Amino acid sequence: MDNLVPIYRLKSGHIDFNQGLKLDFLLGLVYNDEGNLYIELHFDEFLNLEEFYHNNQDAFEQDDYKLFCSTEDGYKFTAPKILMKNLPFRKSKGNFYCFDHIKIEKEIHNRPSNDLESELEIVKDPIKYVKLEGLRIHHTSHTFIKASRAYGPVRPDEVGGDKLWDHTEVTFQLDFRSYKFIIRKDDDGESIIEFQSPQSQYLAMPYTFWEFIKLDFLEFLSFLNGAAVYIRAEYYGQYYSGGKLDAQIKKIYSAQHHKPYRWNNYIPINNAWYKGDGIVSNAFLNCFEKYRNLNVLLDLNTIIFYLNNAEQAPSMGERIFIQTILLERFSNKHAETFEDPETTIIDPDIYAPIHKELVEVLERNKKAMGGNFNLLNSKLSNINNTKRKQTDFKFRQLIQAANIELTKEVEDLLISRHKIVHSGDIGKSDEARKNYFLMDKLLRKIIVNLIGYEGPTIDSGKHLQNPQISPIRSADKKEP
Fold first, then answer.
1. Does the pLDDT at position 467 exceed 60?
2. Helix, strand, or coil (residue 306)
3. Is the pLDDT at 162 greater than 70, yes or no?
4. 421: Cβ–Cβ under 8 A, 6 or more apart, which residues?
5. Terminal CA-to-CA distance of the chain, rounded, Å?
6. 239: exposed, middle or buried (C-beta count within 10 Å: 0-12, 13-18, 19+)?
7. What is the pLDDT of residue 460?
8. Vertex 180, ends 178 and 186: CA angle to 5°?
9. Torsion of CA 262, 264, 265, 269, to 10 degrees
10. Between 300-312 and 429-451, two packed helices, what is the crossing angle to 10 degrees?
11. DSSP per-residue codes, 374-390
12. What is the per-residue pLDDT across 213-237, written as a single tens digit (0 to 9) for each?
């Protein structure tokens, strides 16, 4: 790979094709190009690589395959999904795309515990570090600073204060088990999650359990973040190193770097004004378990994924169309939670006297209606009945289930939604912009209310004192 420095050097190993075929290589290099990983392999010059390729072309081209070897340091190296990029026969080498991840494993051996490495034998392969990408947060926990000179202590004002707001402590419970992690900034400006060692009521989290909750964890955090959060690497196993990102097993993901254009500020975790509210900490402690349960019914992960995608879309039209589809999906999922496919719009006991009055009106005008009386009377008998998935009804049911008032503004939005879906008309610039921000707030408020989040949002009082996070003004400035 031209102009790139290898991040790992590989010793001899082999490619394991899905058809039981193997191809040995002598050495390899791993490159990182903007997050995407590529592997360069060198083969024995006495191997007729061109003949091997033509005899097994299907194995090379039809499916991905695995790579097994060791690093130059003697650690086990695995790339479970690689695919040929090119195969320069005369150079006896091949270049391969690496999909998903690479995994580097050190040996497990007995060693004494010290300040830099801690043995975690109680839990099988506990997760220790997770390198994130895309998270923007004002931290809510601080580290105290003490400084001194040879002639005495230094005053706090000489070093910028006596504490540094440099991390966020988070605890949460799942299945009556408590876990704790901190979020801190890495040297590149991105964030690291550091799961804490077992202590008092907190437990180490097995990597298998982390994989089980990982997607829910990411989408929940992405919702708080207002933009998608991605995992770049995971560090886990029977021992780890303190002070640096290293552990017995290291898994590095291969994917293009994701750099959001915007972070939605509905939940203001990236606003210093709110750092004293402990938004992330309280959200995980009070809402994460409920979020996971609701996700099974409503597929909140998908809703949040596309809601954040709408925030990144380059045009207002694209954003509104994504939102419109999301409202449809959200309300459909909510309607599926009811066993009976049919219901009444209002309580039958409340409707009964109303129905009686309507029938009396029809009776008084029976002569004027002629032969249409029976048809109208029949329709009137069923006017309070509806299917749960009837479009307008299911939208209102979802909104009401989230304890959101159906104001005139919301009613007008639902009417605009009909025009968008059936005519592809998002309206003039001002109308489209207004509908976009209102729909965004509506969708996020539905999620907030359903999961029981009671922390600050841009609807709460504080933002009125801080015009920088006004939803319309800030987005107007960033509009491409």
1. no
2. helix
3. no
4. 324, 328
5. 34
6. buried
7. 72
8. 160
9. -90
10. 150
11. HHHHHHHHTTTEEETT-
12. 999 999 999 999 999 999 999 999 9
Question: Which is higher by pLDDT, 119 or 96?
Answer: 96
Query: What is the per-residue pLDDT for 115?
Result: 41
- The share of the chain scoring above pLDDT 70, in percent, equals 79
What DSSP state is assigned to residue 273?
Answer: G
Alpha-carbon distance of 335 to 4, in angstroms, equals 53
Q: For the segment 335-346, what is each residue's pLDDT rounded down to a tens digit?
A: 888 766 666 667
Q: Which residue has the higher pLDDT, 320 or 255?
A: 255
d(CA 314, CA 480): 6
Residues 427, 420: Cα–Cα separation, whole Å: 8
Beta bridge partners of 15: 23, 67
- Residue 227 and residue 312 in contact, taking contact as beta carbons nearer than 8 Å: yes
How far is it, in rounded angstroms, from Cα 40 to Cα 87? 10
What residues are paired with 149 via a beta bridge?
A: 152
Q: Supply the pTM of this predicted model.
A: 0.81
364-416: pLDDT as tens digits: 777 777 666 766 676 676 666 655 555 667 888 888 889 988 888 888 887 77
Those residues with Cβ within 8 angstroms of residue 183's Cβ, 6 or more apart along the chain or in another chain: 135, 137, 139, 167, 168, 170, 191, 192, 193, 194, 280
What residues contact 7, with CB distance under 8 A and at least 6 apart? 30, 31, 32
Specify the pLDDT at position 285: 95
What residues have CB less than 8 Å from 472, skipping those under 6 apart?
A: 433, 437
Per-residue pLDDT at 123: 76
Residue with tokens 């992960």: 301
Indicate the DSSP class of residue 450: H
- Identify the H or E element spanning 249: strand 247-254
Spatial contact of 79 and 66, defined as CB atoms under 8 Å apart: yes
Location of structure tokens 């994701």 = 258
3-state secondary structure 112-168: CCCCCEEECCCCCCEEEEEEEECCCCCCCEEEECCCEECCEECCHHHHCCCEEEEEE
Q: Note whether 203 and 171 are within 8 A (CB).
A: no
**Residues in contact with 409: Cβ distance below 8 Å, sequence separation at least 6, in sequence order:** 438
- 102-116, 148-162, 207-221 — most confident range: 207-221
Among residues 5, 75, 71, 13, which one has the least CA distance to residue 33?
A: 5
Half-sphere exposure of 390 (CA within 13 A, CB side): 13
- For tokens 């001002």, the residue is 430
Tokens representing 332 are 């459909």
Which range is most confident: 82-86, 258-262, 405-409, 462-466? 82-86
